[in-house]
Write a structure and sequence with these properties.
Order of helices and strands of chain B: HHHH
Structural class of chain B: mainly alpha
Largest sheet of chain A: 2 strands, antiparallel
Radius of gyration of chain B: 15 Å
Structural class of chain A: mainly alpha
Strand content of chain A: under 5%
Strand content of chain B: under 5%
Number of strands of chain A: 6
Largest interface: A-B, 32 and 28 residues
Shape of chain A: globular
Number of helices of chain B: 4
Shape of chain B: elongated
Largest sheet of chain B: none
Oligomer: heterodimer
Number of helices of chain A: 22
Order of helices and strands of chain A: HHHHHHHHHHHHHHEEEEEEHHHHHHHH
Distance between the termini of chain A: 29 Å
Helix content of chain B: over 70%
Helix content of chain A: over 70%
Chain lengths: 514, 60
Amino acid sequence: MIVDWVLAFTPILLILFLMIRFQWGAAKAGPAGWLVAVVVAASRFGAGINLLALSQAKALLLTLDVLLIIWAAFLLYRVADEAGAIGIIGDALPHLTADRGMQALLIGWAFASFLQGVGGFGVPVAITAPLLVGLGFSPLVAVLIPSLGHAWAVTFGSLASSFQALIAATGLPGETLAPMSATLLGLAGFGCGFMVAHAADGWKALRRLALPVLLLGTVMGVAQYGLATNGLWNIGGFGGGMVGLVVGILITPWYRGERSQNSGARLDRRSVLLAFSGYLALIAITLIVQLIPPVRAFLGQFAIRVSFPEMRTSLGFLTPAGYGRVIPLFRHAGAILGYASLIAYLIYKQTGMYQAGAAQRIVSGTIRRVMSSSLGIAAMVAMAVVMSHSGMTDTLARGLAGAVGSFFPLASPWIGALGAFMTGSNTNSNVIFAMLQKRTAELLGYGLPLILAAQTAGGAIGSVVAPTKIIVGASTAGMAGKEGTVLRSLLVYIAILIAGIALLVFAFTKVGLG
Amino acid sequence: MSEHRNSPGRDRFRLQTIALSLILLPALPLYVMVNAGFLWATWILMGLIAGGMVLGMWVS
């Protein structure tokens, strides 16, 4: 039994080892994990060639489900960035207040969350850290602030690609998973806000900025919860960040600080509104597609729907017959992002925000940026499906359930965080560990939405300290080569956040919420 | 742009594209072959996927 458990854990262990010890990326480590998973599944768990082949076909659907969003999300980001929209928004924010704490909250929390909502991929830190350095923050603090600030928005950010991975990996509907995930992440948002304030201005800022932190945390968390629980999870993080930006801007008159710099500069409101127009188009299209039944029904009729037969290993582990992941091609979150990208492009082009050759740069930049991560995701999804269909995940879950028992809710967020730290993303963590968490929760009798929320919340927070993100953040703030310093400072904050989530999850199970 | 044309980065991108295609595309005929009971074709397609994985590892 122990041997089976160790062998079942080998693919995951190998990926973690290769990524930590040899600094391999997901695109390199993922295929290695798949190869080992296939060998172990065939040699020890009785998976035949047909089972492995059908797993591969199933994995294709799951991979497409996630990749369509990642590709389209980055396309929309490139459309806006090429037009200079992101730069315009970022430049406008420091004009609003000279209060350092409030600048940190507005730029490093609300704006970074908005950027995570629309882009992700390390963009929040890469864009806001240099802005904060320009405002006089030390490079270390300039990296810490947005790293902490955007953490709560990771799962529903990047147009909810991590959440989509959670749905795809577990096979549970988003409507079931969204409420608890949005609750945990919304509560984590308050922690992120207070930590941003602390990182910016020390302990005294916690009390001085308590009111804006509570206000922004509430509106961002509620906005994300409202969107996520009404089927609009793909704009959950983005909507939360946007509402936070608007409310943050509205309350800056009470936190102007001493005006020394920027006081003479005027804000070009038309440019800022134009910069936001691409994202306003995304909100409009999402609302139209999700909330107008005839449009939703019309777009939903073109779907990829593949039926799979029952699969059984030679050891008797059974996967029932059923549909693989259904992909409504024209109503998919990736398609909605595609429509928004097109409209945003037309708006920016019409208003002269592009230089010659912009379209080509947008497309080539998008394809180049997503190729490596696509390879990693494709390999790791395939690995997770092979493990799940061969009974390896089940073996792992049984071992874990026996080992941690009633303390599993406390361990759950740490597993998610570990996965994100090792693999560099909340999405990858959900792909690798969600099924394991689901199966363990089933065996121990815990509510699946709560445990899976713990998985993705831990993954979201843990992704912040992933070496890849640290490297991006450190390099953009002029701290290249000092990644260890950044990591050490971040780890304290992140450990407190995850411990808080773990206690919340444990408490929820005690009061019958999971 | 021109520096990209012959750069190692471009070769890496091309090979990653091929690797991703090898991983994803054979999955479509795999489904058909398994259901039709063509075992030899299933082995070949699984071999292609494994080749894509190895290429992905090597090139990344």
